[in-house]
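Put briefly, the fold is written as integer tokens. The lines below illustrate.
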Amino acid sequence: MRSASLGVAIVLFDGTKLIDVCGPLQVCADARGQIGQSAYRTQLLSLTGGPVQTDTGAVLPTRSIEGVIEDDWDTVLLSGGSSAYAAACCTKLLAAIDLLAPRCRRLGSVCLGAFILAAGGHLDGRRATTHWEGCETLSNQYPTIDVVDDAIFVTDGPIWTSAGVTSGIDMALAMVEEDLGRAESLRLARSFV
């Protein structure tokens, strides 16, 4: 069980699905360590920093990935939504993820964010999942990935991927269980019901 505050970065892009960000963010914000302190330090990131408009029209403030490359990130998560397909084609975003990936303990994605991980080669030779509507496409575009189409989330070493939008919450709860123990994960899950 860890007691120090862990850094969690969530990477956004224009049109990202709001719940893909807010679900895991809420789990991390509510998680508590052994003496009741915040267990995680969270930061929303984007390629350029500044406001990012989500699929709902809500705008979220972000910091530039480049400005925090040297920061201590335990976990880096990529948000999802249908705009992840376009984000997966952004070479600058893929290069930024390549800089963050070796510096974190866990790299993951929510929903269609798996396409960004795949485009960067982070899922090659690994088991992964994504939103059910994208599983066949992910498998066809990236045949080296073992796409699991019936999982809520999949872990393969340091790589975590989740299926549809609310499964990002389930994946974040599993990360809390790994970091802080089952009791804290269950406390959080009950608080969300």
About this structure: The helical segments are 18-30, 84-87, 91-100, 114-119, 135-141, 167-180, 182-192. The longest strand covers residues 40-46. The mean pLDDT is 94.
